[in-house]
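User: For my dataset I need records formatted as: sequence, then structure tokens, nothing else. Please produce one.
Assistant:
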Amino acid sequence: MPYLELKDLELYYEVHGEGPPFLFISETACHGGVWKVYQVPEFSRDHRVIIYDQRGTGHSGKPSIQYTTKTLADDAAALMEHLRAEQAIVYGHSMGGRVAQLLALDYPQLVRRLILASSGASHVSRGIPLKMCLELVEKGYERYARDHAIRIGFTEKFIREQPERLDLYLEVRLSKLPPVESYLRHVIARQEHDTRGRLKDISVPTLILVGEDEHRAESDMSHRTSAEILARGIPNARLVVLPGEGHNYFFSSPETTNKLIRDFLRED
């Protein structure tokens, strides 16, 4: 299995296909395997698709140290430089979009186009959200992770009408559940992220995606509100709201999501 040796861990990655580089960055404490079901087969037809396990997840190292989105962005940049993946398309989902913002800001030579999917620039509160703490204690880590993935990721209609696809997602998403310490370190990094004052400096074409159903606030701000803040702050960014979708539309409606990405890429 391919690893990049960094100073404090090994970073696991995979490369699929040939063509312009296309990096996918996963959500909070999620391994890179979630992209292999729908996005890798689609975009590896004409791109060099790069997926990886961020520190603390999957096959990558899990150092017991502080994580920040800056650290995660530095990891991603090191991987891109190692693979000579300059001027890449970067798709960041949720917390991965926060990492992607810092890539575009701190390593502009590496990013040609930016896709921020259900992401945001900051949170109001810092630390681990109280609701999360209570649910972790009451349910236990594994049950909490499963319930949270379902509640946030998908609409009631999808859960009711597509149980097989939901089961497939859970099988993939929970197959490499990180240790609870790694999960919480990712959560803290996410909550402390703040690029509000720097959004105006993102100069690459940016597509912002969010599900129509993402209006509920799990901690202090909904994904819909966060996406709207990004759209207002990033020059010439385009916001697209996916009708009838929750957080994980890349999995629940891959055809629609992939077409939106394709349309965005054709604007070159």
